[in-house]
Amino acid sequence: MVASPGNSLIGQSMKKNHTAFALTLLAMVSVAACARNTPDTSQPSILTAASTAASPTATRPAATRPSATRLFEPLETRPPNAREQKPAFAGQTRASGVKSNVAFEVTVLARGLDRPWAVEPLPGGDLLITEKSGQLRIVSAQGRVGQPISGLLPVGSGGLSASSGLGGLPPITARGQGGLLDVALSPRFARDRTIFWSFSERREGGSGTSVARGVLTADRANLEQVRIIFRALPTYNNGLHFGSRLAFGPDNMLYVTLGDRFDRPNRLKAQQLDTHLGKIVRINPNGSAPTDNPFVRQSGATPTITPTIWTLGHRNIQSAAFDEKGRLWTVEHGARGGDELNLIEKGKNYGWPGVTYGQEYSGEPFEGAVTAREGYMQPVYYWDPVIAPAGAQFYTGNAFPSWRGSLFIGGLASQRLVRLIIKDNRVVGEEHLLTERQQRIRDVRQGPDGSLYIVTDHANGELWRIAPKR
Ligand SMILES: [Ca+2]
To answer: How far, in Å, from the CA of 145 to the mean position of ligand 1?
Structure first.
């Protein structure tokens, strides 16, 4: 089955965005120049090319002025792995480095977490944490680590693994990249106390990404009414590329990101509408497919799969975040080069594995692949070499006013927190934070107090709070 082609992003808005990009860049450089009264030789040189490109009397749009942000050369200075590849538009990779003038402090709230995969702030300030080996816990706002939440095993298929039943969660296979993965609160959590979580489920013949839901008891010690609402198909036998971030949209629908399960023949399924692999699916909170999903009328022989699909052509999406306008952005893993930030639009094809940046881990080019083709979405931004993205969050809080609107992305192999400044659907600045801590950052979320909360991907994993320096 072949997907219907979407519109190309390149032709749509390039001209308009070039102008906007230049204006934004000018505004940022002007701010940076004003803020720099004395020469600071310890910093990289500030870009000056853009400041000569327009009249100094040009009006600066106040709304786009990032406060106290300085602009530098791109942070990435290593050569790309795929040296012959060229971006489809200016600023698609290696945007200007930025340095925000923000005084923050990092508090290690908890240690000894077993490869935490997700942190989800609760309304009162406590934090729900998943550990990949199969525990769901609450860590208090003060850092007290709670016992695993217990509950009912669900009715349904799936054998038992060593981790099964720990914390009352469904049969989880914690193999390779799999295990207990993301967790999300119901949009009506304050009333229904319902949570959703993704996990790699052990099944006949292998494993697959599944999503379950359950109700947290009032004492927060147990899960009740647990049931699996979604199973990614087909089942496949390896421990790689499960996805799987969960994000509720402003439409109260649950968006689930799913990996391609890695292996070379299998990755072609990312382009097929009769599998869930390499897709973003959009489901009702009971797991059914909304009738306004894009491929509902093409369900054919796979009525439980095709109608759930929202977008296709993804490799392994491990970041998903809605912005303040209610638009979904995702970051997916490339191979050797080619991590990409995408703005998700209903029914579109994001290219993998035929239209992509980067190359095989072996250093060979992807067989038959190109970096751009009509009908396939271009990433808004890509990295080569990679950052190895994890969780992501658009910042909307009051604790750090100059970070509002920024997209924060955890970096695994890159061991950093990446901040992107996005204007008019283009990345105009990139900052790398927390590099000195040298830890794999698995998830980043904003708490009700405007702090950022981070978990690190280690056997002795940590939970950090990023708050304004006192
Ligand atoms: Ca892509």
So the answer is: 39
